[in-house]
Specification:
Radius of gyration: 22 Å
Helix content: 25-40%
Strand content: 25-35%
Strand order of the largest sheet: 5-8-9-7-6
Distance between the termini: 13 Å
Number of strands: 9
Number of helices: 4
Order of helices and strands: EHHEEEEHEEEEH
Length: 181
């Protein structure tokens, strides 16, 4: 018996795509851009005649902190989940980094979780906790928990997580040894 009998006649797409977005991450990105701009302004408009070591440290510090905050937050503005016949691929941010590609042969099961919060994982971003596994959390809401063959779990926050779980389970049934067709 299938999990969703009403979907029996509906064909599964070749490639399933999902995304979760967190627009709040733009605020720390703006703060990082401001810090970067401050470093540049300090470098250009400051009098380099007195206290050059302190000024260099201020300029370099502002630029480094600005770049770290700017790119660290932009990496987790959104997460993309792609499921095809071979793997589950998770890409973060506009550049797609960090990225994780999990072959379906390593996935034992998938579970829908109605509420994944940054608080449970220690914040937004790519997270690891020994008792919980690994996660990509970009916002509070529904998510997918993948159970891997090595006993670890991988959690992803994504919109329409229930259909993602359904698509993953369908793919796992199709590649299972002795699966009925």
């Amino acid at each position: 018996m299938r999990d969703h009998p009403r979907d029996q006649d509906a064909p599964q797409p070749e490639v399933w795509h999902g995304r979760a977005t967190n627009r709040v991450q733009w605020l720390p990105a703006l703060a990082g851009a401001a810090c970067l701009a401050l470093g540049i302004v300090l470098a250009v408009q400051s009098a380099w005649t007195s206290g050059i070591i302190a000024l260099v440290m201020s300029v370099v510090g502002c630029i480094m902190v600005g770049l770290l905050v700017l790119f660290g937050t932009l990496a987790f503005v959104h997460v993309d989940l792609k499921l095809d016949g071979e793997c589950v691929e998770v890409r973060c941010g506009h550049m797609g980094l960090p990225r994780r590609r999990i072959p379906l042969s390593q996935v034992v099961g998938a579970e829908f979780v109605p509420l994944v919060t940054p608080r449970h994982w220690g914040g937004w971003g790519y997270r690891w906790r020994p008792e919980r596994g690994t996660a990509v959390v970009v916002r509070r809401g529904e998510g997918v928990v993948l159970s891997l063959w090595d006993g670890h779990t991988f959690t992803i926050t994504v919109d329409d997580a229930q259909s993602a779980v359904s698509a993953i389970k369908d793919r796992l049934r199709a590649i299972a040894p002795g699966a009925a067709r």
